[in-house]
Structures are given as structure tokens and as C-alpha cells.
## 1
Amino acid sequence: MIQPEVLDKLCCPSCADTPVTLGSGRRPDLVCQDCGHHYPIVEGIPDMVAPDRQPHPASYRTETLANVIAGVYDFVAPLMSMAIWRCSPLRYIDHENRALGRARSGVYLEAPVGTGLALAPVVTDDHDAIIIGVDKSWNMLLKAQKRFENLPVDVQLIRADCDHLPLKSGAVRSLQSLNGLHGFSDRAATLREFYRCLEDDGFFSGSALVRAQTDVADAFLERYERYGIYPMLRSPEFLLQEMRSSDFEQVHFETHGAVMFFSGEKTDEARSRPQLEPNARAV
Ligand SMILES: C[S@@+](CC[C@H](N)C(=O)[O-])C[C@H]1O[C@@H](n2cnc3c(N)ncnc32)[C@H](O)[C@@H]1O
Ligand SMILES: [Zn+2]
């Protein structure tokens, strides 16, 4: 069952900011109040991938890979982080803790949530945020659901695409994106979407794998890309430039091995600037 306070924050991913309501049919679903599309709720997880989108061909590959590795992800990810990316897995927990703390009584969005590996350890019953996790991979979400069963508070999982999030504009107080951005087919579009979902003075943080940090990591990232798994990954500065182009202010970063941790804010200064055309770049 979807909690009313969560439902209030959701919208149709195809019709900007149009609310969805619980359907009255035999099978549970959410219905868009504008286009009338039905989003099925499967085992408590609404499937809110926009129906009318022409997905980027690379996104099939990324989704398939995520479904395949979901079973071993909890074991392989920390090992790779230590051995290949040269970043202690504990750093993710630290960053997660900070990001969740910033949500206070607002919405905390984890996008992508994966198997919930980083989120689960920091959720305690003294947090009063509404916690939502989105991911495109069913297998990742089902693993996360199992992991979250024993948590003291609810985490609402949603199947969604990070570049068309089913969240109303300004609904999210703190958005965390750990190791997702480097795998998204159109990072600039995703960053704009993250920005849209944040409330005024909301926080954005996360991490991404970047090149030019260690030879071993570069060798792996090059192979990933050669097999079409990830789009082009460049230096931390490149990603920072993309974040600034998406209007984030107070952008900071630090790198640990091949992992870049970043943070930014949606501030007054950015909101008062003239809007850029969707594909324009600030320099
Ligand atoms: C490396 S995992 C990171 C998961 C989690 N944040 C963590 O740190 O453990 C990348 C995740 O991104 C998800 N993903 C890839 N492309 C996506 C998209 N366009 N929209 C939503 N999720 C996506 C994959 O399904 C996968 O679960
Ligand atoms: Zn709609």
C-alpha cells in the first residue's frame, strides 16, 4: 500500500506534474489524471517508467546488465570498490548518512537505489524523512525490497527512469545519486530532471566513476565503454561542468580513487537567472 504522503509527491512521468491517483480496478495501479495511463503496482512497487518514451538503445544494455548482476551486486560492488576503484565502501555510508540527514522532515530520494546497499545501514527510526528509492531494474528493486523489510521505517520503491522521474517539481529536499550518473545515457537530461525535482534550497549529492585517476580503474572503464555498457566518462571537472550547466550552485567535489563524490544545491541565485534552452550550455 502506498502511503498518502508519498502519493501526494508523485506525478505522471509523461505529463509534467500531473498527479496520479490509486486506480479502482481489480489489480493495484496508479492512474494519471491527464493522459489516463495506468501504472501497475507490482508487489508494492509502482512501475512508473514513462510509456511513450523512445529509450536510448544503450539503456536496454544497462538495464539488462543491472538485472543480471543484481544477484551478486552486494558481494561484488564493495570488492570492486576496494580493489579496482580504490575507494573504501564506508565512504558511501558516510555520504549517505549526510544526505539523509539533510532531508530532515522532507522527501529523501535515492536515484538509483540499486539493492539498497548504501541506504539500509543509515536508516534508523529517528529519521522523519519520507524515503523514496527509484531504479530501472526490477531485480535490483526486488533485492532492495527484501533488504528494507527489516528497517524500522518504510522506504517506497518505484521503478522509474532517472531522466523522467515520477516526482512533482520541487517535491524532494535531498536527492542522492550514488554511482549512477556515469551509466546514464543522457547525463545532462538527468541532471536537469534531478534539479526539477528538488525543492528550493534542496540538496543534491552523489558519486560517479571518473577517468584519469588510476591506471587500473581506467583500464576497466575503457572496457566497460568498449562493450557499450557505459557512455563516455571523463574527468571530475567534466562532470562538474555538466552540473553547473544544470544550474546547481555550491558545487563541491572530492575524489577517492576513481570515485568522485559531489554535492550541489538549488539556490536563489540559480533560480533568478534566465532559463537556458534545454540543450544550451553555460560556459
Ligand atoms: C552501480 S548501481 C548503483 C546502485 C546504488 N546507488 C549503489 O550505490 O549501490 C547502478 C544502478 O543504476 C540503475 N540504473 C541505470 N540506468 C538507470 C536509469 N536510466 N534510471 C534508473 N536507474 C538506472 C541500475 O539499474 C543500477 O541499479
Ligand atoms: Zn500522464
## 2
Amino acid sequence: MQQNPYDQIPYPSAPLPRTHPWKLGGIALLNGYTPPARARILDIGCGAGRNLIWIAATMPDAELCLGVDLAATAIADAQAFAVKAGVTNVRFEVRDLATVEGEFDIIIASGLYSWIADKRGLLQCIHRLLSPDGVAYVSFHEEDRPWRAELLEHRDPSRIPDLADLDPGLVYHDAMAEISDPVSLEEFVEALPADLAYVCDARMPPEETFHEAVLIRSGRGADADPRDLYWVTQESFPATVQLAEAPEEVLDFWSAPRAIVRTAGERPIAWEPARRLAAAGDSEIMNYYGAMVELDAEDAALLASLDGARAIRNEAIEFFAQAGLLVG
Ligand SMILES: C[S@@+](CC[C@H](N)C(=O)[O-])C[C@H]1O[C@@H](n2cnc3c(N)ncnc32)[C@H](O)[C@@H]1O
């Protein structure tokens, strides 16, 4: 049996704030569609699962968070990380996307469409599994890198200055990918099954050559007039939005209570996944906003100790609060 290349060289895994259900639901809302009422979330080709683990950690009431991937090593890594972070409402399976069963309100397919042969199969899978009021995210690129031909001919990344300092997983799976098809937005929309519609890109304004398509069921019809979207923060989480018709009005997408605090309380409490990761000795700690925060051993030990039992206030605690690592 041929080994999956993602089992040979791991692909780096990280939270992807633009795929968060609150953000995708917010984009649907701004376009006039009521966001999904339930939260059954599927991450197709989830790799080592950091994105879905982060999503599950921020949505403890989500009914289902399922990540599937063909690469057994990536799935084992995801499962181990979820245990380490104490995130229990997430499940990972070694599985081909074609064999997933069920109904999902949010479907995420990041880093697949341009990079797999069976693009139609991916869209059919989303079409088959998306709930009537569901929202899907599919990323793809419009243009291949100009240096790809040279790289594929010589198979020597050191000849390409753009690749210096890049993670070997990104060099191998992205830069040197066998399949890396440029797809225009028009071609993508044309390929959609009849019942799926492209709403907009998840990034506003969209990147010129990289798309993050937000899809809904075309048959459902909008519930309201689209709000005239003016501006969405790029990487920030939660996403904030300003409306062109009322630029002074800034909307948050929150539907769930926001547990995180920006000012430390007298008896600080660390966000549980971050506390557990720090206790396990990690130096890169996932925060509530889906960013990785670098901590030295002393700060990591302090964060690990913050269970609300003792009164403590110092510069490190203020930093934790600013860095999205403390709850109220
Ligand atoms: C470029 S990685 C993207 C990982 C992650 N979604 C991200 O954006 O960081 C693509 C992943 O899709 C998985 N994959 C490719 N084809 C698949 C299929 N047919 N079914 C399930 N997973 C698949 C690969 O094993 C790999 O882990």
C-alpha cells in the first residue's frame, strides 16, 4: 500500500480563525441568512487538528466536532493534543472524505480544493452533508507560484529564496505539491453543485489570488436584505464588522457568552486548555482567540498554576490577560 505523504512529513497545524463557526455564521448573517441553529461541525482534511480543537474549546456546547483525514499520523497527533489540552468535545477519525456520514451545520475544507485531484468529490461531499441552514468554507488558490516549474524540475528548495525559513511540511506539501491547481473564482462557482451557492470570501477584502469561499444552500433564500459589509478584521477573533451604512456601529458576532477577560481579576484563572498545555510543558500556548502565544518556562509554570485559588498580580498576569489566556 502506498504511504500517505502526510504520514511521512507532517503538515503544520494551527487554528484558522477565519473558519470559526461564529465567524462563518456572522458572514451568513451579514448576507441576509440566519446562521445555523445547531452546531455540528466537520473539518475535512483536518490534519493534526489544532483548528478543530480550538473551535471545540471555544464552543463547549457544540453538539459535534468531527475531524477526518486520510493521514493516520496526523489523526493520532490530533487525538493526543486534544487529550493534552483537555478538550473532550471533539472526535477525530482516519477517513476518506467520501465516506463521511451525517449532517453538519458548519463544514470546513481548508487547503484541499486546489490540492486534490477529485475536486468534484469534495463539493459533492459538502453538498451531501451540509444541513439546510449550514455554512461551508472552502479555500483554493487562483495562481500557482511563479517559481514552481523550476522547483519541480530540480526538486531543490534551496534554489528558491521564498522558501528559506519555511516549515519543511509547508515546503514539501504546498510548494512541492504534485497537485496545486490554479482555479479562478468563476471556475469554482461554475463547478458548484446546483444546490450550493457562493456567498462571498471569508476575508474582506479577499486576497487577490487565494480564495476562502463561504457557501450556503442556494435554495433557502435570504431571510433579510444583505447588510452592506464595509470592513471585517482580517485575523482578529472575534471578528468585528463595520457596516457601510453605519460605520460608527461595530458588530461582534458573538452568540455565546464571552468568558475571556482582558483585565486580570484579583484571583486569576487561566483558560483551561491553555492552563493544561502550559502544565504539560508546552512553550507555544494556544489562546482563546486562536493565536499561539510563546511563553518561557517560568511564565508557563505561572500560567499552569492559575486556578483561581490565590490572589496574585504582576506583570506576567497582566500579559496573560492581554494575550487572551485568562477567563473571568
Ligand atoms: C494541506 S493539508 C491541510 C490541513 C488543514 N486543513 C489546514 O488547512 O491546515 C491537506 C490535508 O487533507 C488531507 N486529505 C487529502 N485528501 C483527503 C481525502 N480524500 N479525505 C480526507 N482527507 C484528505 C491530507 O491528508 C492532509 O492532511
